[in-house]
Amino acid sequence: MTRLGFSFLVVYALAAAAWSDALEKRFTDPPEDTKPRCYWYWMDGLVSREGITKDLEAMRRAGIGGAYIGVISGQSGVSRDAPCKALSEEWWGYIDHAIREAGRIGIGIGVFNSPGWSQSGGPWVRPEQSMRHVSLPEIRVRGPQRFEDKLPAPSGPFQDIAVVAFPAPRGDGECSDETARTSTSILFDSRDAFTARSLEVRPVKPVKVAAELKAFDGDTDYRSVTKFEIDRHNIAVNVGPVPLAPIVVTFPATTARHFRLDLSQECELGQVLLSSAARVERYPEKSLAKMFQDPLPPFDFYQWPAAAEPDSADLTVSTNEVRDLSALMDADGTLRWDIPDGEWIVQRAVMVPTGTQNSPAPPEATGLEVDKMNRTALASHFDAFVGDLLQRLPSAERTAWTHVVADSYEMGSQNWTDGFADDFRKRFGYDPIPWLPVLTGRIVGSADQSERFLWDLRRGVADKVALDYVGGLRDLCRERGLTLWLENYGHWGFPSEFLRYGGASDEIGGEFWVTGNLGSIELRAAASAAHTYGKKLVWAEAFTGGPSFVNTPRDFKARGDWALCEGSNQFVLHVYIHQPWDDRKPGINAWFGTEFNRHNTWFEYMKPWTDYLRRCSVMLQTGNHVADVAYFIGEDAPKMTGPIEPSLPKGYDFDFINAEVIETRLRVRNGQYILPDGQRYRLLVLPDSEAMRPAVLNKVQRLVARGGTILGPKPQRSPSLQDFPACDAAVRKIADALWKRERVIDGASVEHALRQLRVEPDVLCPDGILWKHRRDGDTDIYFLSNQTGTQRLEAISFRVSDHSSELWWPDTGRIESVRADVREGRSEVEIPFDPFGSVFVVFRRHKALAETPDLTSESTLEIPGPWSITFPSGETTFESLVSWTERPEPEIKFFSGTATYRTTFTLPGPVSRARLDLGAVEAIAQVRVNGKTAGILWKYPYAADIGDAIVSGVNTLEVDVVNSWLNRLVGDERANAGTHQTFVTTKTWKSDTALRPSGLLGPVTVTVFE
């Protein structure tokens, strides 16, 4: 070895050792920036300066590092006759005070970018600055003749886009007469045979019913023509600007004299049109006029089967027959046109507001949502709210204000904006104006071409929302020294693509609830966007909803650990509701959220839990996420999640990846896909789709040529109308060559592909154990979570060798060496898990720590009591440990808060190591032995080392036990529960709600070790 080489190794070794020491220090004493933050909702104008200061001081004591101020209304059950109106000078003064006080106390502040939690709007947004969609009022005219008249227009605000005219296709407007209707069927009878090609149902109220169209020729029974669903169960504008958009289905031309529409149950429908016209099936959904109506759209909702072509060309509109008459219309809407021979349809394309408003916001702070594809309008909105606040505070007084917040998107779609046609031409290479009739279901060119135009429209909207709305907010924030924090998905009418939408932000957040499935899509969406766009932090809006006043940090632990294993690495607690008063407890609450505020019984005891979260954040923000598989989500839009198909085998992890990252950031080196920030994958999985744009497929071809491996079906065409039909030929040419290569696998499982690449499972562990892997240089960090309530000793196998192995305990900060059985390139470690316990297993190249000696139990002493217990109402004695709810005294049975247990125990002889185990506790305990604090116990096991506090002979034990608010709240609903003691604004419990066991339940033991 040369001296230079030896010197390099020495320097590398020293640097690695220094890095390891720094990681240990961060783990044992986490830095300020790892603290969880919280949503800080100011509800219904109920706010006080004293309450603001006390809230911030309490956050600091609890280990919360930041608060995001949201101005919320109508969610707490409080009358709107509030003393402080939003946007008033008094209200702005409170915001100013909060930012100044946060700076003094040491709390970072974020401010939602508009009143309400969703999304970006207010009374300052004018209709022409708002979200808008295309409306196409039309008339039919016949030529040849001169036409001079005003074209129809919406009654409300609108902006013109264009005027187009086209010859009426054959069958357009020809409908079979409805002859009879019952609550479950509609009959269409004709004297002569009628050829039907489409059916349009126009609902008049919310409806969801299965339907079947049948035809009858008179000589046989009714035969089925098509089955479909009439679904308009959600008519809110945030799931589409046309709430009762028609349901349009198409089918092969069917000729009969009698048709019948059968409904699966009674319902009330409006007009039902059985037509000879050829139509684009489900065109309202495909044009974003109506979107997925529930919170969690599946990845393929905006994908449709290939459309069948009409049986005759004269049923369609030829592309060269669509005339742009925009220049012939005056400013007042008068069209002057010499109509050619024949029947023509004239459409006036206009933009009309979708009507969505920021919410839930105070009435005085509510207005239209700003245009999500228009940076000029967005800047106006930003200046009206965030900018106003910036001008009120000198920069030296707003140092605590660091973030602007955009919560999950819940404002539905728009499909046009000012200048959209020009942007569309630049993006897709053709003029969208001749294709506008497609937005009314007309087939222009061919069914395939019309579908491609709609695909381009949806993709164009998705990209502009990401680039101009999210990217616009980001740029506005950066120009003012602020950071954009954003959740990259939407539960109601999300119009973008979750990865590109998140990638355009500075910081990204997911979300999860205490119970239920909400979080499974959102957390992976945030994590994948962060990993693929090179963002260190993966935030999670944590514990968004759950049972009111029931849970404590112990109950959050398993769910929180699950969220960490899904990819999040720092929490924003949901929710701290501002408490303006001290004499009303628990205080202001809402129907949603977990009560992270200073009036909650256990809030002052939660810091050990936030310290735990901070240590987890330290480790899970170190290095890069380790994943072997990248699932390409495809190019269809909108999209809120991606496909995990074929399924991921156990023992591996993955990220979603999008076309933008593949085209602009992904490279291959040594058979691995690599991103600029160090993220790596071994396998790229393509979606089960026959469509891919040539540019993306061309990049995939280059990646394979450099040694990358892909798994998936061979594309057959482009989904876009861009460069049609040459685009399809380009796709086929690239695919034909690419799918002959060795590193292209088709028709196999992910497990087979990884086996072919000789990629072993990263982790082998039993059911009930979740994991997440990070790597930084030569250090591998595995987080393991026991999701079961049982104590376990498990042998876990890791894809690591030639490293020392250690256990890093995030609840205490303790680090200890552990033996690993190394064989065949893997390390097997035996790990003890507490119920719902967790640990980091760290493999690193450095001198191993001394192994922790095994302790042998010498003796165990049970402390039976009696116990002196002090409640606020007075002192009592328990001869044995029982739940407070089992006592007859109302002031104990229904008590919520902190009670102190006292007793003594005797230990003979000198003791160096001893462990106190409280047994069962409901729910948090603070222990003192002989006056010395032994810690706050908030999870299983409720045990603490007390060797430094005990003495030979008599010892005094004190235990402060705190439960949740529930029992007192339920007691206040009962007649025999003593004096009413609580104040809330929203109730989710009743007098017969079951009480929760509370107090120190034991058995309490002291174990002495040698």
The radius of gyration is: 33 Å
* SS element count, helices: 17
Query: What do the pLDDT scores average to?
Result: 95
Tell me the fraction of residues in β-strands, as a range: 25-35%
CATH class of the largest domain: Alpha Beta
**In the CATH classification, which architecture of the largest domain applies?**
Alpha-Beta Barrel
Task: Write a compact overview of the structure shown.
It contains 17 helices and 52 strands. With 1010 residues, the chain is of the alpha+beta class.
Can you put this structure into words, describing what you see?
Helix 1 (3-28) runs antiparallel to helix 11 (607-620), helix 2 packs parallel to helix 3 (89-105) and helix 13 (694-705) packs parallel to helix 14 (726-738). The protein is 21% helix and 31% strand. With 1010 residues, it is α+β, with helices and mostly antiparallel strands. The protein contains 17 helices and 52 strands. The chain has five domains: 33-127 and 356-413 and 480-622, Glycosidases (TIM Barrel), CATH 3.20.20; 175-315, Sandwich (Jelly Rolls), CATH 2.60.120.260; 625-747, 3-Layer(aba) Sandwich (Rossmann fold), CATH 3.40.50; 763-844, Golgi alpha-mannosidase II (Immunoglobulin-like, Sandwich); 857-1009, Jelly Rolls, CATH 2.60.120.260.
Compile the SSE list and pairings:
Elements: H1 3-28, E1 37-43, H2 49-62, E2 66-72, H3 89-105, E3 108-112, E4 132-135, E5 138-150, E6 159-167, E7 175-176, E8 178-181, E9 185-203, E10 207-216, E11 223-232, E12 247-263, E13 269-275, H4 283-286, E14 323-324, E15 334-353, H5 375-392, E16 401-406, H6 420-428, H7 447-479, E17 483-487, H8 498-503, E18 507-512, H9 520-532, E19 538-542, H10 553-565, E20 570-577, E21 586-587, H11 607-620, E22 624-625, E23 629-632, E24 654-657, H12 659-664, E25 667-669, E26 672-674, E27 680-681, E28 683-685, H13 694-705, E29 710-711, H14 726-738, E30 744-745, H15 750-756, E31 763-764, E32 769-776, E33 779-786, E34 792-798, E35 804-809, E36 814-817, E37 820-823, E38 826-833, E39 838-844, E40 857-862, E41 867-871, E42 874-878, H16 890-893, E43 898-907, E44 913-917, E45 920-922, E46 924-929, E47 932-937, E48 943-945, E49 953-962, H17 966-971, E50 983-984, E51 999-1002, E52 1005-1009
Parallel strand pairs: 1-2, 1-20, 2-3, 3-16, 16-17, 17-18, 18-19, 19-20, 21-50, 23-24, 23-28, 28-29, 29-30
Antiparallel strand pairs: 4-15, 5-15, 6-14, 6-15, 7-13, 8-9, 9-12, 9-13, 10-11, 10-12, 22-32, 25-26, 26-27, 31-34, 32-33, 33-39, 34-38, 35-36, 35-39, 37-38, 40-52, 41-42, 41-43, 43-49, 44-48, 44-52, 45-51, 46-47, 46-49
